[in-house]
Amino acid sequence: MADDQHKDSYNKSSLESIVVFVVPFPAQGHLNQLLQFSCLISSFGVPVHFVGYRTHIQQAKSRNLQDTQQIHFHEFPTPHFDSPPPIIPNSIMKFPTHLQPSFEASKQLHEPFTNLLHEFSNKVKRIVVIHDPLMSYVVQDFSSIPNAESYAFHCISAFTQFFSFWDAIGRPFPVEGMPKVIPSMEGCFSFEIMNFMAYQYEFMHYRTGDIFNSCRLIEGTYVDLLSKLEMNANKKQWSIGPILQKGSSTRHKSLEWLDKQGPKSVLYISFGSSTTMTDKQIQELAMGLENSKQKFLWVLRDADKGNVFDDETREARLPEGYQERTEGTGIVVTDWAPQLEILGHTSIGGFMSHCGWNSCMESMTMGVPILAWPMHSEQPWNATLITEILEVGIQVTEQAHQMELVNSSTIEKDVNRLMVSKEGEELRSRAEKLGRQVWQSRDEGGVSQLELSSFMAHLSR
Ligand SMILES: *[C@@H]1O[C@H](CO)[C@@H](O)[C@H](O)[C@H]1NC(C)=O
Ligand SMILES: CC(=O)N[C@H]1CO[C@H](CO)[C@@H](O)[C@@H]1O
């Protein structure tokens, strides 16, 4: 993407005279998106400084496949915070509450970050702060620096943002194309994270604009609707996604296994970095997969801890003899797997996913239909967008049942529905078509390329 042709349309020396600080929220789905974004914009020649605690920067780097040499990393010493193992979810709460201490600790970046801003303010023409909305408190002091400005980088879908705010403020105007059911948020957020978010949003007023990791082909309607909300009045917007970049140096063993499978024959299963399943649910899922007789690649991990470098992770308990029985049909991976490469592999025909926004964007861009199994946060919204609005996926289980155990027969049925039914075929061809369009949106003249150009031109003004 970002080829030299369109880089030329910016004032390169003007980009070199500014500095961009990228401030991610310390959870994998967010770290990852902001690091990819950093790589993308630094390819235009703008100096990018990625800011965080050492442990979180190391986490982001260790799980990233791209070349990050051109990024300046500001690794602040990690303060002490509790990093307990994930809490095994119960029937009412699936949110990863064990991460709250690391979220709270992120607020302490406020002072060192302010110092960093002051260090640079006299040296450069302009300071540009691009931050996760959940780091608004940390970056707040940019507003007292005359040559600084900020932009929020949204790691969540515009669809979710729009409907959740619009609903929360009493549905101020009518909207066409509403989802049939507004997803229930019950159990999706803890009380502490709700407070944390509300607190951060108080510091959002001074921003100049918003950047969405989304493509107008997917979410143009909702990006436009967001601009109608009063809180976004006069804020600039750019939808520059997908920000993904393919290509990696080392090949994970799972890719070699995929090489040996037939085209579109394998179901990929992963619930991201913030979901922990009960042993009982793991058993049901294992049996459902086995009974479906479909090929599968299952990444089975607990949620990250606040500090991912603390070892002692729980051993996932598969049924007796499972790996032997499913040999040749499926593999279970317990280390970190290169999801984008997996989704881009020709053998993959479907993705069973918790519908984190990162996973949704990756799957849509790679043209893989989703078997949606939302767990917490705004994932139910993502799932609604995927299944109901874009029709590139189906739900494992109806929203109303999201807190209940999903039994193996339901899983077996849904896996077959996605992998080997007429409906599944149609989903796959719609997903492939969308994937091609989204990927092409980054080509010269494509809708996302134009948005990115517009953003870069704005920075180089
Ligand atoms: C599995 O769950 C479905 C949906 O809740 C239910 O209809 C079905 O009876 C259950 N099957 C078994 C074997 O428990
Ligand atoms: C809101 C949204 O569209 N995306 C959510 C999807 O799920 C991830 C969890 O991985 C959330 O972080 C996003 O907020």
Number of strands: 13
Which secondary-structure class do the elements indicate? alpha/beta
Helix content: 40-55%
Low-confidence stretches: 1-8
Describe this structure in words.
The chain is α/β, with parallel strands linked by helices and 461 residues long. It folds into 2 domains: 4-245 and 442-459, Glycogen Phosphorylase B (Rossmann fold), CATH 3.40.50.2000; 253-438, Rossmann fold, CATH 3.40.50. Helices cover 40% and strands 14% of the residues. The protein contains 19 helices and 13 strands. The strands form 2 sheets. It has a 7-stranded parallel β-sheet, with helices on both faces. Helix 12 links the parallel strand 8 and strand 9. Helix 12 crosses helix 17 and helix 15 crosses helix 18. The longest helix is centred in the C-terminal third of the chain and has 19 residues, at 422-440. The chain is globular, with a radius of gyration of 22 Å. It starts with a helix and ends with a helix. Residues 1-8 have low confidence and may be disordered. It binds 2-acetamido-2-deoxy-beta-D-glucopyranose (2 copies). One 2-acetamido-2-deoxy-beta-D-glucopyranose (NAG) binds at residues 29, 156-157, 160, 272, 274, 355-357, 377-379, 381-382.
